[in-house]
Design the sequence.
C-alpha cells in the first residue's frame, strides 16, 4: 500500500527517528496518512504519491467513445422497438413514443444509479433526436422493415451489446467498483427491453426464454477486465460488444434457452 509522502528539509530515504537512512530522519504519523519527514540539508520539492489504485494505469475512455456507444445503442434499439411497435399495429405517435421512451430508459436508469442528475439523455438534444428520427423512418417505410421481421431480434442484440458496453464503461469512469459496474451495465442493457415488452403487453424476454442477461453479463465482464488491465478503450469496447452480440445471436440461431418448469 502506498501512502502520501511529504519530504521536507533534507533529502534521503524516510526512516524512523534515530534509525538508518537520512540525516536524523523521523517518520511522523499525525493520525492521517503516514508522513515521512527528513530534516537537514537542502529542501527539495514536495513529492506526493497517490493511493495504490490511483497509481495503477486506468483505462482512458475518451468522451467520443462513450457518446458514440450511447448514441449507436439508442439508435439501434429505437429501430428494434419501432419494428416491434409497427408489428403491433401502433399509430405514428405510439411508434415514436415507444421508440423514444424505451431507447432512453436505459441511459436514464444508468445515470440515476450513478447519481448523475438530471440524466445526460435529458440534457442533450441528440439523445432525443436520434430515437425519434429512427422511429419515424421505421414508421414511414413499414413494408421494407416488416419484411425484415427476423431483423428485430438481431437489432435488439446489437442494442443490448452497445448499451451494456456503454453502461459498464461509464460506471467505471465514475469510479464505481468493477462488480457493481458490471451489474449496472447488465441492468442498463436489459432495462429497455423489459420496458418495451411491458408496454406491448408481453412477458419480458429476459424472464421467459433465450440467453439474454447472461450475454450482457459476459460483455460487462470483458469491459471490466479490460479496465483492470488498462487496455485501449476502443478495443475493449469493440471486444465487449462483439462478445455480447456473438453470444446473443448464437443463442437465437441455436435456440439456447434457460431451463423452464415441466
Sequence:
Amino acid at each position: 500500500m502506498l501512502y502520501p509522502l511529504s519530504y521536507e528539509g533534507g533529502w534521503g530515504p524516510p526512516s524512523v527517528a534515530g534509525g538508518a537512512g537520512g540525516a536524523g530522519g523521523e517518520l511522523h504519523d499525525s493520525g492521517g496518512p503516514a508522513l515521512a519527514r527528513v530534516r537537514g540539508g537542502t529542501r527539495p520539492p514536495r513529492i506526493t504519491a497517490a493511493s495504490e489504485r490511483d497509481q495503477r494505469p486506468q483505462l482512458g475512455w475518451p468522451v467520443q467513445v462513450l457518446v458514440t456507444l450511447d448514441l449507436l445503442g439508442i439508435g439501434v434499439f429505437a429501430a428494434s422497438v419501432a419494428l416491434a411497435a409497427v408489428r403491433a399495429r401502433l399509430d405514428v405517435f405510439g411508434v415514436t413514443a415507444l421508440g423514444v421512451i424505451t431507447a432512453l430508459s436505459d441511459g436514464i436508469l444508468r445515470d440515476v444509479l450513478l447519481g448523475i442528475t438530471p440524466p445526460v439523455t435529458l440534457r442533450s438534444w441528440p439523445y432525443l433526436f436520434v430515437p425519434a428520427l429512427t422511429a419515424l423512418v421505421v414508421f414511414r417505410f413499414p413494408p421494407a422493415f416488416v419484411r425484415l421481421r427476423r431483423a428485430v431480434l438481431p437489432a435488439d442484440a446489437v442494442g443490448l451489446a452497445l448499451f451494456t458496453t456503454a453502461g459498464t464503461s461509464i460506471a467505471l469512469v465514475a469510479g464505481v467498483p468493477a462488480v457493481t459496474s458490471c451489474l449496472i451495465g447488465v441492468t442498463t442493457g436489459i432495462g429497455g427491453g423489459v420496458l418495451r415488452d411491458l408496454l406491448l403487453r408481453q412477458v419480458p424476454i429476459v424472464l421467459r426464454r433465450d440467453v439474454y442477461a447472461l450475454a450482457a453479463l459476459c460483455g460487462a465482464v470483458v469491459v471490466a477486465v479490460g479496465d483492470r488491465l488498462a487496455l485501449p478503450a476502443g478495443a475493449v469496447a469493440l471486444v465487449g460488444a462483439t462478445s455480447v452480440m456473438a453470444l446473443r445471436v448464437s443463442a437465437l440461431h441455436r435456440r439456447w434457452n434457460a431451463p423452464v418448469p415441466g
